[in-house]
């Protein structure tokens, strides 16, 4: 009975977490990845020898996608992917609120300029399916 109760709580937790994700963002990160990567002739979810996954790889770039609030994480991942694949690191920053997310764009721009990371911004209204 105790195992069943723990199992039931786990299901409720996972369901509520997934529901929160869809409520807090208009689209999932993977939706932005697919839209942008297809539009730019890239390959989605390229797996590296160490099992790390690059969100999108184009002829010239290794690209990480992240919501604006996670700007700092995107830097490290893009630099690593670019180094491993011998491509220019890139970040596609998902900006859902131009005003609130401006500080994250500004922070990323400072580092991107210094470390030669190409940056693209995508908004929910840019996506068309």
Question: What report would you give on this structure?
Answer:
With 129 residues, the chain is α/β, with parallel strands linked by helices. The chain has helices spanning 2-24, 29-39, 71-85, 102-115, and strands at residues 43-47, 53-57, 61-67, 88-94, 118-122. It has a 5-stranded mixed beta sheet with strand order 1-2-3-4-5. The longest helix has 23 residues, at 2-24. It is globular.
The DSSP helix count reads 4
Averaged pLDDT = 85
Measured distance between first and last alpha carbons? 46 Å
Share of helix among residues? 40-55%
Largest sheet, spatial ordering of strands: 1-2-3-4-5
Radius of gyration: 17 Å
Query: Tally of extended strands?
Result: 5
The sequence of SSEs as H and E is HHEEEHEHE
Task: Report strand %.
Answer: 15-25%
- Helix/strand/pairing class, anyone? alpha/beta
Query: Low-confidence runs (pLDDT<50, min 5 residues)?
Result: 3-21
Notable characteristics:
disordered N terminus, 49% helix, alpha/beta, globular, 129 residues, five-stranded mixed beta sheet, 4 helices
Topology:
Elements lengths: L1 H23 L4 H11 L3 E5 L5 E5 L3 E7 L3 H15 L2 E7 L7 H14 L2 E5 L7
Parallel strand pairs: 3-4, 4-5
Antiparallel strand pairs: 1-2, 2-3
Helix pairs in contact: 3-4
